[in-house]
Amino acid sequence: APREVAHLSSLEMLKEVKGDDDSKKVVAEIMARCFVPSLITTTSWEGFHFVGHEILITEAMDSYGAVVWPSALVLCYFLETNVKHYNMVDKNVIEIGAGTGLVSIVASLLGAHVTATDLPELLGNLQYNISRNTKMKCKHLPQVKELSWGVALDENFPRSSNNFDYILAADVVYAHPFLEELLITFDHLCKETTVILWVMKFRLEKENKFVDRFKELFDLEEISSFPSLNIKLYKAVKKSRRSARKGKVVSRRVFL
Question: Which PANTHER family does the UniProt record give (predicted)?
Answer without folding.
Answer: HEPATOCELLULAR CARCINOMA-ASSOCIATED ANTIGEN, METHYLTRANSFERASE-LIKE PROTEIN 21E PSEUDOGENE-RELATED
